């Protein structure tokens, strides 16, 4: 009989085997690592750190290396030496001075009170006692309050390192007491390079395009990339990982299939689009992955459409870039943006649907039919606008316009009277990008008309503060408007006065018991 303790060797997952043991091995976080090393070298070590970022970017690994480095007896340039007694003790997990706490399972106030009692005691071996609290956002509000005082004024020998994927859930009182380090998603090229090194060490045969595919689907997380590679090794023979095996494992559709679906959307070929979808579905492809691929391809088409430096922004082969170039030439960039937004909205719905295939069919039909179907009622695809006559503003006609102009807005030489209400919304969105508060104030206004290059906007009586803000920044708005529409226009903002003797106003007051009546536009 063999007991558990007699097992000579146990299998360790790749991401644990190749977890960084020094700062030099941490990839994709050069700025953060440089700052941490300099603090160790100059002995300007603070009492509390906050490492935040998406999963698998090296937060916990960096925290452990930092804990080892500050206690190392012979650290050089901020790096742990790995040969002194302290380093060896830490690597063997035989030290009591580095305490890892999982906040997800130790989230209550009692655990934090216990921690507060223990921080008083000095370190047993090293210079510092380091507390690494992982997923710190999981602590309760009472636990945060209990930690607050200790975090603000800990003993000189104590360092706190808080790690989280959701810093937005932390109280501001905690955030303000920590030095914050943002761990960004690791670049695809860095992940690919690291995996290539690991594959060479393990004698794994794998093509560059296969490594790139794994790196892309890791979403900036080195841990996820190694987990995918490990799964591929489980189904491969003789340590050979093929491109097809990775695609099948991830449920990824062929590039040719994705480009074919995009071509059917561009050419408004509903039947072919549904046929390609059926093919992907029968072959066991993940529909969420397919949607993701379509979004990314449309994104690449948009990049190609608006910039010449596409090589730096698109991760694709030259052959695929040529295909995307041809597809992008057939469609306007506004329409591509609409495709991306529609697919993104539907992708979120698919994740929680019991009938994902039906939803994908619906979105493909919708995209293929866009600009061909116009409905006489209010919908997400169409915007109802009113044409105001210069002579009789009380007479109005309703028009249905496509949500996306058939020509790029930048090429318009003047504001079209029928389209101007729609274009006013575009102006508001453009201002919002420069100044969110100013754009929101402008959006509170209501487009009325254009007379002799003067754009007339009205604000309700209760929106005086927005009117004043827009008038104060009128020159900036006019400059932006003129750049968009390539003509000289002036903004005329006034306050709309409701006629108190109007019969409808009187009825509204009586029914709702209101002193004031304001008009809003849906």
From TrEMBL:
SUPFAM superfamilies: P-loop containing nucleoside triphosphate hydrolases, post-AAA+ oligomerization domain-like
Gene3D superfamilies for the chain: 1.10.8.60, 1.20.272.10, P-loop containing nucleotide triphosphate hydrolases
Domain AAA+ ATPase positions: 45-187
Cellular component aspect of the GO annotation: DNA polymerase III complex
GO molecular-function terms, A-Z: ATP binding; DNA binding; DNA-directed DNA polymerase activity; metal ion binding
Superkingdom of origin: Bacteria
InterPro entries: AAA+_ATPase (IPR003593), DNA_pol3_clamp-load_cplx_C (IPR008921), DNA_pol_III_gamma-3 (IPR022754), DNA_pol_III_sug/sutau_N (IPR012763), DNA_Rep/Repair_Clamp_Loader (IPR050238), HLD_clamp_pol_III_gamma_tau (IPR045085), P-loop_NTPase (IPR027417)
EC nos: 2.7.7.7
Keywords of the record: ATP-binding, DNA replication, DNA-directed DNA polymerase, Metal-binding, Nucleotide-binding, Nucleotidyltransferase, Transferase, Zinc
Catalysed reactions listed for this entry: DNA(n) + a 2'-deoxyribonucleoside 5'-triphosphate = DNA(n+1) + diphosphate
Gene Ontology terms: biological process: DNA-templated DNA replication
Tagged with keyword Nucleotide-binding: yes
Pfam families attached to this UniProt entry: DNA_pol3_delta2 (PF13177), DNA_pol3_gamma3 (PF12169), DNAX_ATPase_lid (PF22608)
The keyword Ligase is annotated on this UniProt entry: no
Family the UniProt entry places it in: Belongs to the DnaX/STICHEL family.
NCBIfam families (alphabetical): dnaX_nterm, PRK05563.1
UniProt-recorded name of the protein: DNA-directed DNA polymerase
Source organism per UniProt: Alkalibaculum sporogenes
Gene coding for it: dnaX
